Amino acid sequence: MKIAILTGAGVSAESGLGTFRDVGGLWTQYDLNDVATPQGFARNPALVHDFYNARRTNCAEAVPNAAHEALAALATGAHDVTLITQNIDDLHSRAGSPDVIHMHGQLMRALCAACDASWDAPLVMSPQDPCPDCGAIATRPDVVWFGEIPYHMETIAHAVTSADLFVAIGTSAEVYPAAGLVELAQGRTLEINLEPSARANAFDDHRFGPATQIVPAWVAELR
Ligand code: APR
Fold first, then answer.
1. In this structure, are 42 and 133 located in the same domain?
2. How many domains would you assign to the chain?
3. Are residue 83 and residue 127 in the same domain, yes or no?
4. Which residues contact 4 (CB under 8 A, 6 or more apart)?
């Protein structure tokens, strides 16, 4: 069976990485306009680097949880799995998932705004870091900010459209285009989340509860 999976911050919540819109979430602590938009970066690059440096350190200290591990095991089984994530952490890869599609970029990668070169980010980045390729002082985290185009959208659309099953895990379905992917699905659709998301009604089936309990149980039924 071809399965397309979309994950959000909820899949990493039990690894101690904050979500965005839950109580105490990142967007209740920071103004996203200051730290997750090109305009915010232009205004104060040091603040933006500090924000992502703190998240990069948290991510390096976090470990994949049972949901990440179950999804990695699913990919090595009999099913044809495409894993798409909105998350910029590397926990899916560290759990062993192959070919993770990071539509919002990756916290552990850096990007040159001048020449588009991308490289493994140091744990701490600063506005003065020169690009290793062109030398420009224009380095930024390789993440997709609000108002920017997510990565790999053609690949993602094809994977969702051609899947027998589309599963959304741990996302509030508040941010597009990710939240609209369920409309592209031609097969069955399943939402796995702590609680109904903003697009819950668009899914055929639902399983609610913590990802570390629900995801391994769901994967065990498929294998
Ligand atoms: N298990 C399962 N789901 C959980 C858990 C958990 N332990 N904890 C929280 N959740 C659910 C919440 O109920 C919520 O619906 O995860 C979802 C997290 O929603 P958001 O915080 O909005 O995160 P996400 O949907 O990934 O945000 C999408 O918004 O800010 C941008 O680029 C950012 O990729 C992010 C995008």
1. yes
2. 2
3. no
4. 81, 82, 84, 159, 160, 162, 163, 165, 166, 167, 185
